[in-house]
Amino acid sequence: MNNETSAEDPKKIRALKGWQIPAYRVVHALLALPFNVRHRLRTTKQARETAETPRHQLARFEQNVMSQQGEDGILREIFYRIGPGKKYFIEFGIEEGTVCNTALLASRYGWGGLYIDATPEDISKVQARYAGRTDITVRNAFITAENIAGIFAEAGVPEEPDLLSIDIDGNDYWVWKALSSYRPRVLVIEYNAAYPPPRRWIMEYNPDHRWDWTTHFGASLSALTDLGNSLGYALLGTDRQGVNAFFLRRDLLPGTGFREVT
Question: Domains of the chain: which residue ranges?
Fold first, then answer.
């Protein structure tokens, strides 16, 4: 993640705190079943969740190749429906960049773009991985609402990139708001599931914020949905683990078959 130097994975820490159902119990049970039975159970469960919870309409597309919460599959489906565009992304909060929302796009599907992370050791590994890739820019920076637009301008980010992914475990809401002059077609942003809908909670802005392993970070899903609405974005849903929210620029929504989650 961008603005945190710990080697621990915050998603795992949240799971240990009871934010998620312990996955190992489910996995151990399912592995004992024949493949076709496991597949049927999984498909049935996804269909039920999608029908019962509108914000889970993306759940059936989840797949991890180089992502953590099924983002690879969800993004593949979204861009299948709206087209890949110019294949330009921006992602910050990537740590070493081996497991993130755009790694698959960059390594296998010819996407280029901008990577930003605050940890020098991590960003040096990203630079080494993409050495020779003239279509990928890598920057070491601690992101704030004050500096992000300047970083974008210096890196030559287009006004309408195809994908923006935000995960800095703190000022995510304020950084998105500071980028209102940019119009990514798709935006992925981490939300704080400790404040479920309809609660509207936003962490007060602090440019020096570093995550302290508590629930004091980011913003609730409802607060981010309000911000998205004000900027012209429709919420398509979240992953089933309650980590990321997926927004589509509203002018692209007609004809996609997706429902806006309100």
Answer: 10-252
Higher pLDDT, 101 or 7: 101
Give dist(CA 39, CA 156) in Å, integer: 45
Residue for token pair 């960059």: 106
**What are 215-253's pLDDT values in tens digits?**
999 999 999 999 999 999 999 999 999 999 999 999 999
| CA atoms 127, 133, 136, 137: torsion sign | positive
Per the DSSP assignment, residues forming a β-bridge with 89 are: 113, 163
Separation of first and last alpha carbons in the chain: 29
CA distance 171 to 219: 8
Specify the fold of 10-252: Rossmann fold (3.40.50)
Q: What integer pLDDT is reported at residue 52 of this predicted model? A: 47
Q: Is 22 helix (H, G, I), strand (E, B) or coil?
A: coil
Q: Tokens at residue 162, please?
A: 């195809």
Angle, nearest 10°, between helix axes 35-52 and 23-31?
Answer: 140
Whole-model pTM: value is 0.80
CA-closest candidate to residue 248, choices 259, 239, 240: 259
The per-residue pLDDT for 55 is: 80
The residues with which 233 forms a beta bridge, in sequence order, are: 249
Amino acid letter, residue 189:
I
Give whole-number Cα distances, 259 to 196, 242, 250, in Å. 20, 19, 11
